[in-house]
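Students often ask why inverse folding is considered easier than folding. One informal answer: many sequences map to the same fold, so there is more than one right answer. In these notes we will look at a single instance of the problem. The structure comes first.
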């Protein structure tokens, strides 16, 4: 099995199952929204978009004359990560959070919206498993490829530890491959950092390459409950039309993040707060964007 060999039929069936499990939770999650939490949320800035424009191209700059916004990713990153930045104790590492982050992009016209903080590096949490999995799909054995897919589906920390121990450069290599300038690894996978902008860029690239990419299929078939017993039903997963999601949370449950893709869009969000806080952030910032109305 290689990174593009998953069957379309099987992928669609798994996506449908994953989607159906989560839609029933949307109403319950939205009921938790608190007014005080919303007052502290940074406002999303809309960068524009034209429904008549061509699809987003991750390796090109925005065409200002056409009023089109795209994720601004250079063709070559030329980036040498400094892993010393996250070498402290976990408590200090978690304080590296930068407040709320939100990024949204629609592939059909390049519409892009995000908070001013969307490119700031912050704890990647389990979103880093996406980067590990991408590297393993390209360089690992058949057994390791299956483990990488299961790692995404059930957010299995043990598998992440084993794969990262074997491929310690996987996060940095993936970051360089996709031009993820805020993403870097560490000696331990759990200390890696990324941004909502980077993870949206990454998922959008997979979607443009193959909508039945194994990582996307694994996200669509994600378990309701993660390997550590945590419910996977919050954040960007509450958005209407979501097909697949990867979630992240810190061991102390003080940091939460998620990235979700739909048929033609990708959204990611991160917050210092609870899973309910993340769902509130997503509902407030993204649901009323053009084309996302419930």
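Output (designed amino acids):
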């Amino acid at each position: 099995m290689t990174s593009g060999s998953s069957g379309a039929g099987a992928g669609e069936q798994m996506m449908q199952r994953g989607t159906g499990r989560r839609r029933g939770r949307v109403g319950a999650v939205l009921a938790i929204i608190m007014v005080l939490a919303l007052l502290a949320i940074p406002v999303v800035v809309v960068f524009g978009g034209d429904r008549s424009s061509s699809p987003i191209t991750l390796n090109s700059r925005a065409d200002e004359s056409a009023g089109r916004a795209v994720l601004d990713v250079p063709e070559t990153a030329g980036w040498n990560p400094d892993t010393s930045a996250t070498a402290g104790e976990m408590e200090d590492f978690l304080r590296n959070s930068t407040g709320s982050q939100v990024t949204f992009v629609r592939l059909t016209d390049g519409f892009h919206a995000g908070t001013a903080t969307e490119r700031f590096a912050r704890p990647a949490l389990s979103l880093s498993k996406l980067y590990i999995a991408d590297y393993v799909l390209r360089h690992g054995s058949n057994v390791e490829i299956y483990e990488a897919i299961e790692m995404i589906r059930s957010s299995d920390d043990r598998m992440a530890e084993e794969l990262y121990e074997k491929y310690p450069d996987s996060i940095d290599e993936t970051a360089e491959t996709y031009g993820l300038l805020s993403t870097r690894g560490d000696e331990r996978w759990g200390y890696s950092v990324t941004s909502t902008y980077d993870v949206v860029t990454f998922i959008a690239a997979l979607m443009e390459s193959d909508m039945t990419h194994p990582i996307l299929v694994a996200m669509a078939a994600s378990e309701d409950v993660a390997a550590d017993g945590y419910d996977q039903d919050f954040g960007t997963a509450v958005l209407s039309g979501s097909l697949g999601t990867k979630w992240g949370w810190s061991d102390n449950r003080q940091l939460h993040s998620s990235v979700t893709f739909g048929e033609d869009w990708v959204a990611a969000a991160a917050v210092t707060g609870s899973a309910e806080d993340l769902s509130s952030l997503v509902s407030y910032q993204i649901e009323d964007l053009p084309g996302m109305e419930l």
